[in-house]
Amino acid sequence: MAEGDLPRASAADRARAMAELQGLTGFHISLANTMIKAHFHKNFGRLALTQKQIAILWLVQSCPGIIQVELARMLRVKRATMSAMIRLLTGRGLVARRALGGIDSRHVPLQLTREGDAVLDEARVAIDRHEAWVKQRYSQAERRMIAALMQKLYEDAG
Amino acid sequence: MAEGDLPRASAADRARAMAELQGLTGFHISLANTMIKAHFHKNFGRLALTQKQIAILWLVQSCPGIIQVELARMLRVKRATMSAMIRLLTGRGLVARRALGGIDSRHVPLQLTREGDAVLDEARVAIDRHEAWVKQRYSQAERRMIAALMQKLYEDAG
DNA sequence: TATTGTTATACTCTATAACTATA
DNA sequence: TATAGTTATAGAGTATAACAATA
């Protein structure tokens, strides 16, 4: 059996098939997301924080007293999912349930611990370097374009 | 304690914090990806196929004889990850390891089973409707823009 | 030595469903 | 009834590490 007769798809077949899938907008977004997460993890894995976890820490620091359902809405995840994430971060001593009581005791205001603040500071350095990598690929105009396009999808589509 | 004194971040605080996170390109892409996956799952969950699984079926159908490492490269996942995905799909009787032997016996050519073909046909209908939803949000020019922008990220960044 | 595939292990993210407590 | 949070359960996707078989 000659090389060309191997029961494997040729590079041309594969390129054609990829082109078909690339007709789907979500496919592009998914691959880009995969790559960007992989880059972050590969280069900043020593932080032991995912981008999602950093986003939560960030929001809690900027909005001390924020409650879980608000975080869930902002990050587009379910209530139960956010509960699990918060449990993980409180378990690691980065987030604390605030002792101060509001009027509605169903609300559990959150804040960063001292360690949470310190860890987020480290994370910001990593994020800056990660963003520098992104900026090598995109001009400011392109980044604004991506922001606007992606927002069209996630701002309304509830 | 008056309403305004509740230990909760205000809407303005939250908007400001979101704006900070939105300075990060990856944040937009991640949220858009979350929403698009959620829409697909919510509306076509009865298929019991994820978008990633459909992508694999699609590539195997278009490229009969394709092997795992090629699929892994095309979908930007690790060899071990693809192995797990293929095991799942073969376990469900949608993908078959082809009996025909190539020269290199390390290569295991894949193809769809009859059921795999049938299931993918169904999935294509779901995908078409999903894409229609996407197209309500984006013009053709915008979709081309997204494709080009996302490709810049995943084509080179290896 | 390099490639292909597998297995073991572990973790994150996600969902649904059912529950408690509170309003 | 509705809201906030939790728990239990399940499954997909991802990673690393080690291994076997083959080239």
What's the gist of this structure?
The structure is a homodimer. With about 160 residues, the first copy, chain A, is mainly alpha-helical.
Characterization of this structure:
Chain A is mostly helical. Chain A is 65% helix and 4% strand. Chain A is built from 7 helices and 2 strands, in the order αααααββαα. Chain A has helices spanning 11-21, 25-44, 51-62, 68-74, 79-91, 114-137, 140-154, and strands spanning 95-97, 110-112. Chain A has a two-stranded antiparallel ribbon with strand order 1-2. Residues 1-6 of chain A have low confidence and may be disordered. At the A-B interface, helix 1, helix 2, helix 3, helix 6 and helix 7 of A face helix 1, helix 2, helix 3, helix 6 and helix 7 of B.
List its traits:
mainly alpha; DNA-binding; disordered N terminus; two-stranded antiparallel ribbon; 2 strands; 7 helices; homodimer; 158 residues
Average pLDDT taken over every residue of chain A: 91
The chain pair with the largest interface is: A-B, 74 and 74 residues
Order of strands, widest sheet of chain A = 1-2
Rg measurement of chain A, Å = 21 Å
In N-to-C order, the SSE pattern of chain A is: HHHHHEEHH
Cα shape of chain A = elongated
Work out the oligomeric state of the chains in this entry: homodimer
| Number of DSSP strand runs of chain A | 2
- The computed structural class of chain A is mainly alpha
Helix content of chain A: 55-70%
With helices defined by DSSP (H or I, 4 residues minimum), what is the helix count of chain A?
Answer: 7
The portion of residues forming beta strands of chain A comes to under 5%
Distance between the termini of chain A: 55 Å
Largest sheet features of chain A: 2 strands, antiparallel
Low-pLDDT segments, ≥5 res of chain A = 1-6
